Please model this.
Amino acid sequence: MAGGVARAEGGGSAPPATPDEGVLGELVVTGTHQEKLPRIAVLPSLSPDLEDVIVRGVVRRDLELTGLFDVIPDSKAPIGMYGFDDAIDIEAWRALGAEAIVKVAARADNAPGKIQVLGVAYFLNVGKEPVYQKKIVVSKDDARVTAHRVTDALLGALTGRPGGFASELTFSARWAKNRRIFRVDADGNGLAPLTEPNDHAIAPAWGPAHSVYYLLSRNYAPYALYALAGGVHKAIAVPFKTSLYGVAFDKSATKMALAVSADAESAIYVGAPDGSGMQKVSTTNLATHPAFSPSGKLAWVGGDAHQGSQRIYVDGKAVSPSGFTAASPVFCDTEDGVRLIYSVAVGNDRQDLVMSSEDGRGMARLTQNQGSNTSPACSPDGRLLAFFSTRNKQPGIYLMSLKRFRTQQISSQLGEALRWAALPSVAGAP
Model:
């Protein structure tokens, strides 16, 4: 039973004969042309204080992961003072070609267990005043997450759209003979299991108040719905006794979609997060992996029980190309509008990612001839796409910029059912 649901989530194997891949569209970036990126300086840290090293290192790494900037190497930093209170030598950095300057620093506060965190950003073509400047006091244990929040604020000042690094990913991955639910920071740090090793847990999704909903099977029993909130796991009562295949929530976390098995078929039901008011909405004999669009549309992986093919459906209409086994739909609220992204089987046990509008038009490939790429998930700000990949003999989680289409690895962990969500907001955060 466990393996059956895992295949339903992952999309199954490729069909015996793969149709013409030309219908998948052109690869968005071929590598023959590299766009010139804005050159940005992140001032180095010369402090021996661990909190300063952490904050500065996290912000620099985040800015690199966006794919939006050419970050000047530390080795080219001008000679000077880089302490918490030291002034920024703007002209020295301008001489290196910097178009923007970022300074982040941290130091111990007078209050025990507290640190001061500073963030400053300049646009060199808009005057001498900083476009962002803030100093806050936070718990020393929050140095890393505060650094991510600083990055998000800096991106808002530099680009007009706040970032999405104060967030985390969840997914299911193999643990011995079972599968467990894991979480990890947006930059790949802090990998940790959320479920017990003796349970078989799959298909996590972010629910109300940043809770994690997932499907759990013990001793080969049907998969049931559970939620993790405030460190407590609890069963969610739903009006189904058969196995569940997937769970998803809309943007407001007031609607919950469930994929439910029944008589060798499956269907999508939508109701409240507490399991009440569930109504069938799918129109295909097989329906798994629900996913809501920010606009309120509902996608799922649908197929015919006899033919076994799987296509992406949006509000009951097939939008993925016929003949390709499709899986793992996700909607990304990008700077250029909402985009639908999913994987398609392309033969030799490989899958590629494709992107289109919500209705399936304007299809383009995001990956090609780079191993197998699965389980796409979008950052809260819509700038980045996370996915599992086996490329370059370095399997793991990769991030792709949906603006520049540069890809970087953040983790060596493989899994399935990747989901991404912002951390709850905090009063007084950057």
User: Anything to note?
Assistant: The CA atoms of residues 226 and 235 lie 4 Å apart. The radius of gyration is 23 Å. The domain at 2-30+166-422 is CATH 2.120.10.30 (Neuraminidase).
